[in-house]
Amino acid sequence: MDSSYYINLAISKAWKYQFIAFPNPAVGACVVRNGKLLSIGVHYEAGQPHAEINALKKAYTDAFPYSILTRLKSSQDIHRFLSKYHNNFFHNCSIYVTLEPCNHIGKTPSCAMLLEKIGIKGVIIGTLDPNKLASGGTKRLKKSNIYTKVLNSKNSYNLLLPFTKWTKKNFSLFKLAIREDGTTTNGYITSQDSLNLVHKIRTKLDLLVIGGETVRTDRPTLDSRFSNSKKNPDILIYSQQKEFDTTIPLFNVPNRKIIISDNLNRLDHNNFIMIEGGLNLLKHLNKHFDMLMLFISHKHTVHTPFDYRSLKLKKIHSYFINKYDEIYFLIKF
């Protein structure tokens, strides 16, 4: 297998956790020895172990299932253990990581320093880190005579697009769910797996935007009840008409602000925004989002299914979250 194969494996895994690690980027990593894949890891959440550390831990604990490492959770503890007890396990291994290993100590220790300590054979990097605070891992690894190669992978760069946006100013995501026949009304469209993912993303938001007509018609809750965090986003109802039935569930979710406005000026004052709506709102707010996360339910197949290309957007990734639901990530040309 060539380098692009393992990098693309790591990229595909990381896309499944896109937005979940906010404000950190989505990152994936693979550990390989003599052409055999030992493990894949991703960065699950800010403050928790990075993708490289999760991949190294899995490779080690798969080989030594009774090791104390299986019980260690924090980045600091995993780093300390592997630094001291790696026993040259990784000497013939290479790690493929979508983003340059970090070279600074923040909420977690430096991944580049750990790779240096365990004497890994090679580090193949999808793309360099645009964050100057964390970058420099490549130079450190090369100084330690570790084989280090940067692929400048377009797919790795695309994985970073939300991160590069929200670190410069803000990032606005439009979420649209649609059935294969092109309909978007009459109750839940996607499966529980997709709902769980959307609710996880909601816990990371600074602001959730919804159209006034959708609020009146669907009477949504727009909370995060299917996530572990249960942190509910503040809501901006985009509507010229300011009067709403306050028995609609979203008005009765605790610990949230609700703003009703006929303009979107508040988008400029929030870091991570998600707009939820249908095709009409998507067209109306075309200039106000950076990426479309499109859920297509294939539960009921039709002869002529909805084609994402009709939206005139560019696909940068897609995957099936389960048997029926397909998720597309689309940007403007």
TrEMBL record:
This is 5-amino-6-(5-phosphoribosylamino)uracil reductase. One of its GO terms (biological process) is riboflavin biosynthetic process. InterPro entries: CMP_dCMP_dom (IPR002125), Cytidine_deaminase-like (IPR016193), DHFR-like_dom_sf (IPR024072), Eubact_RibD (IPR004794), RibDG_C (IPR002734). NCBIfam families: eubact_ribD. CDD domains: Riboflavin_deaminase-reductase. Keywords: Hydrolase, Multifunctional enzyme, Oxidoreductase. Coiled coil: none annotated. It comes from hydrothermal vent metagenome. Residues 1-141 form the CMP/dCMP-type deaminase domain. Pathway: Cofactor biosynthesis; riboflavin biosynthesis; 5-amino-6-(D-ribitylamino)uracil from GTP: step 3/4. Its EC number is 1.1.1.193. One of its GO terms (molecular function) is diaminohydroxyphosphoribosylaminopyrimidine deaminase activity.
